[in-house]
Amino acid sequence: MRPVAPDIPAVELRAFRKSYRLGWTGARVGAVQDLSLRLAPGQVLGLFGPNGSGKSTTLKALAGLLHPTAGECRVFDHSAGSAEARPRVGYLPEAPRFAPHLTGREFLFYCAGLSGLGGEVAAQRVGEVLTWSGLAGAAGRRMGTYSKGMKQRIGLAQAIVHDPDLVLLDEPAGGLDPQGRLALDGLIRDLAARGKTVVFSSHLLDAAGALCDRIALLGKGRLLAEGTTAELLGAAPAAPPASRLEQLYLDRTNGHD
Amino acid sequence: MTEPRHRGVGASLNRIRLVAGHTLGEALRMRLVLLFAVAAVLLLLGARWLAEFHFGAPELKLIGDFGLGTMGLLGTLLAALATAQLFFNDVANGAAACVLTRPVRRWEYVAGKLAGVAALLALFTAVLGGLLAGLLLWRSGQLGVASAGLPVLLSACALQWMKFTVIAAMTLLVCTYAGTALFASCAGLLLAVIGHLRPFATGGGLGWLRVWPNLARFDAEALLASGLPLPAQQLLGLAVYWAVCVLLSGVLASYAFKQREF
Question: Is the pLDDT of residue B211 over 80?
Answer without folding.
Answer: no
